Each structure stands twice: as structure tokens, then as C-alpha cells.
Predict the structure.
Amino acid sequence: MNSPRWLDADEQRAWRAYLRMQGRLTARLNRQLQADSGLSLADYEVLVHLTDRQEGRLRPYELQRDLQWEQSRLSHHLTRMQRRGLVRREECADDGRGAFVVITEEGRRAITAAAPGHVETVRRLFFDGLTPDQVAALERLATDVLGRLG
Amino acid sequence: MNSPRWLDADEQRAWRAYLRMQGRLTARLNRQLQADSGLSLADYEVLVHLTDRQEGRLRPYELQRDLQWEQSRLSHHLTRMQRRGLVRREECADDGRGAFVVITEEGRRAITAAAPGHVETVRRLFFDGLTPDQVAALERLATDVLGRLG
DNA sequence: GCCATGTAGATGATGCGTCATCTACTGGTG
DNA sequence: CACCAGTAGATGACGCATCATCTACATGGC
């Protein structure tokens, strides 16, 4: 690890600003969601993906692929959500190893109640005040970086 | 919370891409740092701020202000870092309530060893492949959003 | 000097994230 | 059919983040 290429002044500033924004924004979104609906950002993501399929059910490995979560994180998270009654597990007939995660009525109620406030908060804290160009540039940047993350 | 203003298609895509990049990038950086040096991103930030002052010591409230962390998070984190020998607490003569956090020799050694690999990883995963314009746009965007976060 | 209010910091409980590891089933090759 | 590599998923241990709460000292008004 000899002679690392340090960040130049512009990069340094951009990186610090990004880290700071990221941390504060995530914290704010999490707090709003938690306070107003009792859901975490993670719960929200899971429920969104479940409601995206009309069946309201998915195999855990599909959820994992879509969310890009660690497998054990997902498993633990589903256990906690199951304990709170937001989802339920079902056996999978086709594959004896597998399972289904199914959103419950309570889960549907929770996300339906949470969504408007959450979207409003994302808009207010993030998108309001950004120009369409900035939004496009962000998508581009995020996509570029994602590409390099493999 | 009636008639929320939903995100349009562009915003939706940008938001999803941002969330995804954010999650994956953080995970990768954390894993590299953890694997190569036994430090977490959080440890790293704390040590950077301590080494920024030539004394290597700060009042916890200063650290809190700089890092924008919850007070109790900082306190717990310092306790863990102290247990691992990276920092040490000292009493503050001027203010009987207060304390100092001081980086130890071991803390200095840890961050000195960790920094090159971490910077290299940030560069490789994030900055390589971004144009100077993109870097400038990111800083601008992050600063704008931070402004609105209050 | 005494009290009220504010500030610095620590702590316990609880949910989250990661790593290492385990079980159980599948599917292909001999 | 027997075997074995691979895949689906769960679990225990442990460090991290947040909330509520607590102690102790500081400071300004009376």
C-alpha cells in the first residue's frame, strides 16, 4: 500500500459534504418514518417490494436480490417484522428448502399509512430546491458508481 | 397529510439509484476498512477528527458538533473505542462536568495504518471515473441539501 | 447564598447489521 | 442409485444506533 493517491481539495470537500449529507438525511428520514408510523426505512423498503407484486409475496432470495441486502440481514429482519405482524412466512411447495414471505393485512395498512408522509418528507428534504438538471446528474452519478461497484 | 405530491418518474429513478448506491458503497467501505485495519467507518471519523488537532484531544461536545452525531451514540462509541485502547478519557479542569477524549498511541498507529487503504478504496470505488464536473455537482447538491436540513 | 434552568456527559434497554456457521434440500455426474 | 457441489434459509454472538433517563456541574436572577 505504498504512495496512495490522496484526494485533492475538491474531492475532499465533495466527499465530506456527501458523507455529512448522507448521514443526516438518512437519520432524518428514519426518524420521521419511525415517529409517524412505527416503521424503519428498512421495513419500508421490504414492504414496498412486497406490495409491488400483486400477490404480496416473494421468495426471500428475490427480495435479497432486489434489495441487495446481506442474506442474514434479511433473514433477521424478516424475523423481527414477523414478530411485529407485518409479514408472515409460508412454506414453498416447489422447493423444499425455500419459503415465501407474505405481507399481512397489518403490513398493508402500515405501508399505506406511512407512504404519503414519507414521500412528502423525501420531497421536502431532498427534491425541493433541486433543479431537474441536478436530479438527472445525481442519477447519472449514482448509476456510474453502481456500475463500478460490480 | 392529504394529496401528497408523489415523485415523478425521473425523481423516482434518481432516488432509487441514490439509495442503492449509498447502501452498497457504505457497506463496501466499511468492509474494506474492517477487514484491513479492524476499524469501522465510525472509528475512522472519530480518529480523523482527533488527529486534526495537534493536541490529539477534544471535548466530546466538540466532536459531537463536528460529526453531527447523537450525543449518546458518541458516548457509547467512545466507551467502546476506549475499551479497545484507541482513545482515553481525561478529566477537564476548567469545567467539572466536562471531559477530554484523547487519542492514544495505539489509536494513532491504527489510523496511520488504515488511512492509505481507505483513501485508495474511496478513490477506486467512487472518484475514479467521475469527471471534475460531476465532483463539483455532487458537492453543490450535497451542500444544497444540507442547507435545507437546517 | 439559593434556587431554577441549562449544559456535559454516561447508562440501560432494545432493535439493527455482520460474520461465522449450521441445516436441509436440489440437481448434476458417475 | 450414490455422491457431492451448490443453493435456500435460519441462527447465535457481538458490535452499533437510538431513545429515555439520570447525574453532576454551571450560571444567572433574586
